[in-house]
């Protein structure tokens, strides 16, 4: 997730199905997949944050979506702690 953020993106669909374990020489790595809902949160050129929006439809998987997503507030980097908590409760 940190790597994705360093590339100025928010994944927006953190759930167990989107994490894969590597095989062979990559067996100690965890991979994040399915970037279909990802959005930029910062402009590459200016490094300015792109403002979040309200009145957005639920994005991602409802079971793992954070409370703000259910309140139609666009997800941001701060919401990953909640999403990861929901994923950990799954296991």
UniProtKB/TrEMBL annotation:
SUPFAM superfamilies: Protein kinase-like (PK-like) (SSF56112)
Domain of life (superkingdom): Eukaryota
EC nos: 2.7.11.1
Signal peptide (UniProt feature, chain positions): none
Top-level class of the enzyme under EC nomenclature: transferase
Domain Protein kinase: 1-91
UniProt-listed Pfam families: Pkinase
InterPro entries, per database record: CK1_Ser-Thr_kinase, Kinase-like_dom_sf, Prot_kinase_dom, Ser/Thr_kinase_AS
Gene Ontology terms for molecular function: ATP binding; protein serine/threonine kinase activity
Listed name of the protein: non-specific serine/threonine protein kinase
Natural source organism: Parasteatoda tepidariorum
């Amino acid at each position: 997730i940190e790597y994705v953020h360093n590339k100025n993106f928010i994944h927006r669909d953190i759930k167990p199905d989107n994490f894969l374990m590597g095989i062979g020489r990559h067996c100690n790595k965890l991979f994040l997949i399915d970037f279909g809902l990802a959005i930029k949160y910062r402009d590459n050129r200016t490094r300015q944050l792109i403002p979040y929006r309200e009145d957005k439809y639920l994005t991602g998987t409802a079971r793992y979506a954070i409370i703000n997503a259910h309140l139609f507030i666009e997800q941001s980097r701060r919401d990953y702690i909640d999403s990861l908590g929901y994923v950990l409760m799954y296991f």
